[in-house]
Specification:
The chain is an alpha/beta fold and 301 residues long. The chain is 39% helix and 23% strand. The strands form five sheets. Strands 4-3-5-14-6 form a five-stranded mixed beta sheet, covered by helices on one side. Strands 12-7-13 form a three-stranded antiparallel beta sheet. Strand 9 (205-208) and strand 10 (216-219) form a beta hairpin. The protein is rod-shaped, with a radius of gyration of 31 Å.
Length: 301
């Protein structure tokens, strides 16, 4: 039988208090209970343990040999329990402190920034520090709590939580299409100038799929290229050429008519947006809150 089944763990805290304060009365004052109750707890604990733990006289109190060995273990159990309770309370309490986040520039500008504003307004004791960069950062070296990564994940020891999937759209400004017939097939895209995103593994090669159609692999030539999606979007809005951009970056532009989606019946491969954090720890409430808010903003559960 498990020895813990015979022991009331609350009495361990009483025993630790008695030893640390040096007397039953002092332990009673620390715990906020009567001295007679402390004495009763100690008597019952010794019966549960099956050994005498304290030698008590009218003038002194000291531990027995068994009590000395038992005290170290009891103190550790009490400390571990207090830490566990504090951690659990921290995960349900009001989020507070600094939350350091890194994300690609385009995602930080279009998605993360308004979410961060809403969270800090709703939770005044929370401070969010965003590092918008288009390259992976070392979470430990940079003291980062969570990293937002777009696309295929590289192998790592970090834990990953999926925030949402995204689609890439081929878009162009209405001015670019003036006097031109809109392409009806991926093979017709070569008639339009392309603005390429150079950080992609193969920025000039595309694979399109459509219901009832064979996959179409297309290779294009670029007239302009940029290394950030935000700059690519600006160039497309200026009429510099067509561009392949993630749906979250151009949704407002498409709704407002500033950009037009080409080949809406054809689809490029979907990608994923993930939140990464150290694998050795359960993410704190503020990290989970950010991830949950980003997922809710994306409409995914």
């Amino acid at each position: 039988m498990n020895a813990l089944a015979n022991v009331n763990l609350n009495r361990l805290a009483v025993f630790v208090a008695v030893v640390e304060t040096g007397s039953l009365s002092a332990a009673a004052r620390r715990l906020g209970i009567a001295t007679t109750m402390v004495s009763a707890h100690m008597q019952r604990l010794e019966r549960e343990v099956g050994a005498s733990l304290l030698l008590r006289t009218t003038r002194s109190l000291r531990m027995t040999e068994a009590g000395e060995g038992f005290f170290d273990a009891a103190r550790q159990i009490v400390a571990d329990t207090e830490r566990a309770i504090a951690a659990a309370a921290g995960n349900t309490a009001e989020p507070r402190g600094r939350l350091r986040v890194t994300a690609p520039v385009d995602y930080a500008e279009r998605v993360l920034a308004p979410v961060a504003v809403a969270l800090t307004q709703r939770h005044p004791q929370l401070q969010i520090d965003v590092l918008a960069v288009d390259r992976p950062l070392d979470l430990v070296a940079e003291q980062i709590d969570v990293a937002i990564r777009i696309g295929q994940l590289a192998d790592s020891e970090l834990r990953a939580t999926r925030i949402r999937s995204f689609s890439a759209y081929v878009v162009a400004s209405p001015s670019l299409l003036e006097g031109r017939a809109a392409p009806a097939h991926p093979g017709e895209l070569a008639a339009l100038p392309l603005i390429a995103l150079t950080v992609l593994p193969q920025p000039l090669q595309c694979r399109f799929n459509a219901d009832g159609e064979a996959e179409q692999a297309v290779r294009l030539q670029s007239v302009l290229s940029f290394n950030t999606a935000s700059a690519l979007r600006s160039a497309a809005l200026a009429g510099g050429g067509m561009a392949m951009l993630p749906d979250y970056l151009v949704a407002d532009d498409l709704a407002a008519g500033r950009l037009v989606r080409l080949l809406p019946g054809w689809h490029l491969p979907e990608g994923g947006i993930h939140a990464l954090y150290p694998a050795a720890q359960q993410p704190p409430r503020k990290t989970r809150l950010l991830i949950e808010t980003l997922r809710a903003q994306a409409g995914e559960s």
